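Priority: medium. Attachment 1 of 2:
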């Protein structure tokens, strides 16, 4: 297993002993400094504040090239997440209810989970699959922009 880094960072990073650390379903390069694990991506960005996260734009935890890294907060990092394998929709944050009566779009904004429901019953269903996709994406945009109705 190898980490990708820019040529300019290779020399100084090579002075450390690195290991692959699995966090959830991803691997990250990390080293021990004064008995604390530190991620290669945090060292490259020079991050010391624990509230500032390092985001891998392509979601590859071992790709630590500078063009792939950016400092962000928890919300910004979550916005760049990858869709889970067992989803009922092809869209991130959109899912279909177990009884297939409603389509929901959800996101977390400012620490609060927001959910929008779209009625997909036969009489209210759009005419084409593209209309349905556009309707779902409109819901997702409404959630992100804060223009939403919360479903309880």
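Attachment 2 of 2:
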């Amino acid at each position: 297993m190898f980490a990708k880094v820019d040529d300019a960072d290779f020399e100084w990073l090579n002075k450390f002993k690195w290991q692959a650390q699995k966090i959830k379903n991803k691997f990250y390069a990390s080293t021990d400094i004064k008995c604390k694990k530190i991620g290669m991506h945090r060292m490259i960005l020079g991050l010391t504040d624990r509230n500032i996260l390092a985001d891998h734009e392509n979601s590859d935890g071992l790709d630590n090239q500078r063009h792939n890294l950016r400092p962000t907060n928890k919300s910004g990092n979550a916005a760049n997440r990858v869709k889970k394998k067992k989803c009922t929709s092809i869209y991130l944050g959109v899912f279909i209810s177990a009884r297939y009566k409603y389509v929901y779009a959800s996101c977390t904004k400012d620490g609060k989970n927001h959910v929008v429901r779209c009625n997909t019953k036969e009489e209210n269903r759009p005419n084409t699959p593209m209309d349905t996709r556009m309707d779902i994406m409109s819901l997702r945009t409404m959630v992100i922009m804060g223009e939403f109705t919360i479903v309880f």
